[in-house]
Amino acid sequence: MPKMKTNRAAKKRFRLTGTGKLMRQRAFRYHKNEHKPTSRTRRLEGDVVVAPGDAAQARKMLGI
Question: 13: buried, middle or exposed (CB in 10 Å: 19+, 13-18, 0-12)?
Answer without folding.
Answer: middle
